[in-house]
Structures are given as C-alpha cells and as structure tokens.
Amino acid sequence: MRRSLRLMAVLLAVTSCAGSTAPSLRAAELQADWVSAPATARSASIDAAWWRSFGDPVLDELIVVAERRNLDLRLADARIREARALRQGAGAELFPQLNGSAGISTGRTVGVGGAVLERTAATLGVEASWEADVFGRLRAETRAADAVWAATVADRDGVRLTLVAEVARAYLEFRLYRTQHTLAEANAKGAEETLRIARARFEQGIASRLDVERALTARGETRARVAQLAEFAESSRHRIVLLLATTPEELGGVLSETGALPSASALGVLLTPTEVVGLRPDVRAAEARLLASIARREAAEALRYPRISLGSMLGLQSGSDGAAVLSAPSLLWSLGANLLAPLLDFGRIRAMIDAADARQEQAYLSYELTARVGLQEVQTALILYTQGELRRSELADATESARRAVGLARRQYTEGTLSLLEVLDAERTLYTLELQAVQATADVSLRLVSLYQTMGLMPPNPEAA
C-alpha cells in the first residue's frame, strides 16, 4: 500500500510540474491485459528469499558466498557509499560554515624624507558564513542528492537480484547437465547391451553384420553425448566460480558432482501491477531519478531569485612597528549581510530551467518505459512458466511410455520377432525423451527463477540504511 501511494504521489508531482506535455501512467492502464498467476499460486504468501523454495542447501550456500564476494556487488556497495557521502555533503550546505583563520603579514612604508616604517601584524580568529535558503535552492539540491542516493541503492538491489538469479541459473544448469550426463552414461550402458546381443546373434548366424554396425553407431553417438554433457557441466561450474569470485578448488568443497536437480512450485507469485512496479529495482531507480530531476528543476528555478548570505568574524589582532615586539592583541569582530540578485544574464538562467524541464521529461518517460517493460516481462514470464509446466507433465508421461516400449522391443528382439532397427529406434526415442523430460523440469525451475527476478523479489537491502 505504501508503494502504491508513493507511486501515485510521484505521478501527481510530475503532472503538476510538467503540465499537459507529460504522459500519464494510470493504474487502469497498468491493469489492462494483466496475466494472473495460476490458481494454485494464490493461497500462499511470497517469500522474498525465493531461492529457498528449491530446498537445496548447496544453492543457499552458493548465494550466501556470492553476496559476500561477488565483485559487481562490491562495486555497487562502493557506489552507495559515494552517494551517501554526497548526500551528507549536500545536507551540510544548509547549515552555517565555521572556519578558523590565522595569519601574519609584514610590510614596509617609505614616508616623506625617505623615512622607512616597517609594520608587522598577526591575526587569529573564527569566521562564520551562512546562506539563508529563502527560496529553497539548497533544500532542492539536498532532495536531489537524497533521490540520487535512493536510485543508487535501487541499482544495487538490481545488481543483487541479478546476481542471485544468475547463481541460481548457473547452479540449475550445472545440475541439469550432470543429470543428463548420468542419463547418457546409463544409455551408453544400454547401447553396450544392445551391441552385445547383436554380436551374439550375428555369431549364431541369425542376424546380419548390418545389425552389429548399427549397434556400434548407436553406442558411438551415446558416448559422444556423454563427453559433450561433461563439457557443458564444467562450463556451468566455471560460471559459478566467476559469480562467486572464488576458485575451482574452493568451489569443490561446496559443489559436488552428484545431486538431484532441484525444483519448486510457484506458490505465492500472484502480484498486482502496482506491486510489481513497487518491487522492481529498475523501476524504483527510475522513480528516484525522476524525483531527483524534479528537485533539480526546482533548484534551477530558485536561481531566478536573490541569494542572501550572512557572515561574521571574531578574532584577535596584534602588531608592531619597526623592531618592537608584537603589541598586546586587540579584539576584532564584524557582522555583515550580502544579497546577490540576477539582473542581466542574457538568458543563462532561463536556459538552465529549460534544460531542467527537458531532463525532467526524459526522466519521466524513462520511468514510464521502465515500468511498462517490467510489467511486460512479468506477464511473459508467467506465460512461459505455465506453459513449461504443461510441457513437463506431457513429457513425463511420454517418457514412461517410451521406457516400457524399450523393454518390449529388447525382449522381442531377443526372441527374434523384432528387428534391431526397431530396437535402436525405441532406445533412441527413450533417450531423447529422457533428455527432454529432464530439460523440461530444469526449464520450469529456470523460468520460475526468471519470474521471481522480473517481479523484483528480494529480502531487504542491508546497504540501504
């Protein structure tokens, strides 16, 4: 609710500042053609740490290490510290500035008749200055710095969300390739058994040499696939190494070769359009930059009005003439005010205001585009997930049928009632379906990761404070 109210406040602010030229982003437009999550997903609440729904402690540990060591995330943390410091500096401009001063000077004066007079003076004091922010220029710049800091925090959230999603994808792909590698090895053993039967039948004179060559071909294809899947698994492993900024040796203590392919259901993924707009880091960053552009426009407008500054000084001064030592110090003080108002600048301030107007419009258009792209990505991810579930279910049924068909084909070939070509065809069909079924299961999990990522689901950012 707070995010929705904030969204409406931003839209009202932009409308009032930009006038009729600013496009609108109404809730009704966001709601149009919105694709809901499956009915089964409407009963549970959303866990921001969505990767825990896979129930895989290895994945949980990999994400913990990635959040601690990833270089992109550490770079984003440094940007937050920079923005926080600039925000503090902008806020300090609202308060008086105190400066200590100390100095000594010496000079020589030539008087009438050639008389030379030397004088030395020393001063020690404290100076104070303060700009009275009557027309809000400094306050506007402070709000702009606040918004820039908020945008930087949102950018960091985006990097963090992308990192978690990429670690999850790389891990799921690693488990997928390892599972397919296991299936390929099992299929290679089946090909060896088929080859053994073909050779035995050939030696008995009840099968031709062609059957043996076909069996050899099937075995070679399967062995080649085993090597290829091992290559894919290693590629995914090194992708995880890069994301975690670690080494293969260190990762070996966490990531084992064996393990089940994790899966999860899409419980609690139903969100309204305004909730998605409020959660996505890129939308929040665009919103913060829009607020910054509004504040900078106000600061530019304030340049048209006078600037009033106050100054004061309190100190001690002592001096001497000739070779005399410094005299006893005397008290010095001053208090003054200064007013600076633009009279003739040949359109400089007007140009700055016009430029700020254009930047504000750009920021709003960027915000609306980011919001609409985000909603489209979520809708696409929902559709892909639901269709992936259907495909996985159909392939699971087809795989079971193909497995029974292979058993029947091998038995009938042994009995001599079926040709080897039909056996190889049944085995090839089973192997293909097994690979596709595992791929479909992984695709459902990968699409669920994309769905959570497009919705912007993440636990609170520890660097936001």
Automatic annotation (TrEMBL):
The keyword Transmembrane is annotated on this UniProt entry: yes
Q: Which residues cross the membrane?
A: none
User: What are the alphabetically sorted keywords of the record?
Assistant: Lipoprotein, Membrane, Palmitate, Signal, Transmembrane, Transmembrane beta strand
Q: Which SUPFAM superfamilies match?
A: Outer membrane efflux proteins (OEP)
Compartment list:
Cell membrane
Check the record and name the InterPro entries matching this protein: MdtP/NodT-like, OMP_efflux
Signal peptide range equals 1-27
Database matches in Gene3D superfamilies: Outer membrane efflux proteins (OEP)
Topology relative to the lipid bilayer, per the entry, is: Lipid-anchor
Similarity comment text for this entry: Belongs to the outer membrane factor (OMF) (TC 1.B.17) family.
The protein depicted here goes by the name Efflux transporter outer membrane subunit
